[in-house]
Each structure stands twice: as structure tokens, then as C-alpha cells.
Amino acid sequence: MTAYIIRRILTGLLVLLIVTIFVFLVVRLLPGDPLVIFMGQSYTGQQQRISPEELEALRHYWGLDRPLYVQYFDWLGDILRGDLGNSIKVNVPISTLIAERMPRTMYIGFVTLLFSSVGGILVGIVCALRRGTWLDNTLTTVANIGMVIPVFWLALLLMYLFSYQLHWLPTSGWVNPFDDFWGHIKCMIMPFSAMAVGSVAGLARIVRSCMLEVLGADYIRTAWAKGLTEQVIVVRHQMRNAMIPVVTMLGGSLAMIMGGSVFIEMIYAIPGIGLLTLRSIFDQDYQIIQATVMIFGFVIIISNLIVDILWAWMDPRIRFT
Hints:
There is one protein chain. 77% of the residues lie in helices and 0% in strands. It has twelve helices and no strands. α6 (134-148) crosses α8 (181-215), α8 (181-215) crosses α10 (230-267) and α10 (230-267) runs antiparallel to α12. The N and C termini lie close together (11 Å).
């Protein structure tokens, strides 16, 4: 087991290194010069007063006049020392910006994942136990629809219905739960719902399929023959053996939630990492783009690593592969 975990950690580190190279190169291939854009925004109508010498001095200050491989290794070395650099637009440490916004994004992601896990597993179990009934057909149809609904479209639809038509919920914004708990709940109902629908639907289908797959296994028939109750059979036998694909699905759901946070934070004006990344793309603030995309990649790699370890814990055969 220890050797298996070490192999997975080394593989994760290699993937993370590849992610840093990919992000670094892609950001450099974006059209336009971030310094020209920044100075154009700072001195609107006065671009003609910016001399080539000033641009060259700024490029030297930000290290853009050095070869790409030198810039990459300098950036990688700073990351290993815990320095994410400074924002070109506001010239403040990126670690400060991320530390301020990361708790909001992680909070939204954690709550969404919790609701998705509980809701998806419960719906999937109900559908499997009541296979072929009207309840199974209804929930399966709703899950199929939920899987194909785009996150941003559902977010706009919820906003139109509950904010503009019914006036039940605020359209957007962020309220600190420690300042106004009920105001915070009202602000978060639509973001949580928009992000959780797709994950609940996908997880419900996986759980239903896995439960039905193990339903005809020999050990399940043996459990029925021994006179065990349905609750004991479902909890101790069916669920435990059907959870391996579900754990994989949960890891993928976290990736979807992190990606969907960009749209949700933009639509509902939530000041998190997703909104920071989107604004940085428009401003071509490449330092922030590199840092935030790398963080997203790190979270996804860690989630996959946890999934691999859970796989090996639930099924000892996997650790020998």
C-alpha cells in the first residue's frame, strides 16, 4: 500500500509539472501585450505619451525581456519558495488576492460537493431499489435532463425565475455568513443549485447502474437466502461493492465544480478565484492567470490522488496494478 501511494504521489507531481509548463506557454501565446493593455487602461487617451524606453523598462522590471525558459524556471523557483509573484494590473502580491478569494470558492465547492454526494447517492439508491416503477422512471428522466443542462444557462434561468419574476432571491452578490446568515443563505441558494444539478444527476445514474449491477451477484442472493433484511443487504453488501465507480465519479465532480465556479462566480458576482481568473484573462494579467490555473490543476490532481488511494483501500487488488 505504501509503495502504491508513493507511485501515485510521484505521478501527481509529474502531472503538476506538465500543467505548469502548459499554463506558462499558453499564457505567453495569448494575443496582445499585457503591458501595453495595462498602460492603455491606466493612461486612457495618453498612449502616445508612452515612450518605447518606458515600455522596455517595464518589460525588464517584469522579466519579459528574458528568454522563455529563463522566465519559466524563475517562475517555478518562486513558486517553490511560496512566491506567486505580483499582479501586473494592481501590483499587489497574488498570494494576497488568492488568500482573500480562495475561501469563498472552496466553500462553494465543498458545499456543492456535499449536496451532490448526498443527493446523488440517495436518488440512485431509490431508483435502483424501485427499478421499473413510476418513481424510478421519473427520477431517471429528470437526471438525464439535468446532465445535459449547461451550468451557465441554468444559472441564468434561476436568476430570471426567482429574482426577476418572483422577487424571492437577490440577483447576485456575496454576503458574509458571519455578518448576515440568512442574507447569505438567500444569496447562495441559486449558485449552489446551479452547480449541484449536473453532479447530482450524473452521480444518481452511476449509483443506480452500480447498484443494479451487483444486485444479481451470488453474495447478494446468499444474503437474501440467509434472511437478512433489505436495509442490511443494501448498506453492508450492495453499497460497499458499488462505491468504487461512485468514488471515481466524485473525483470528476470536483473537477466539474471547480470549472463551473468560473461561470457561477461571473453570473452571480461572487468574488472568488473563478471571477478573479476571468477578469485576469480579460486584462491579460498573465501572473494571476498562471497562479489561479495552476491552483485549479493542483486541486484536481489532489482529488484524483485521493480517489486512487480510496480505490486501493476499498479494493486491495488495485494496489498491485
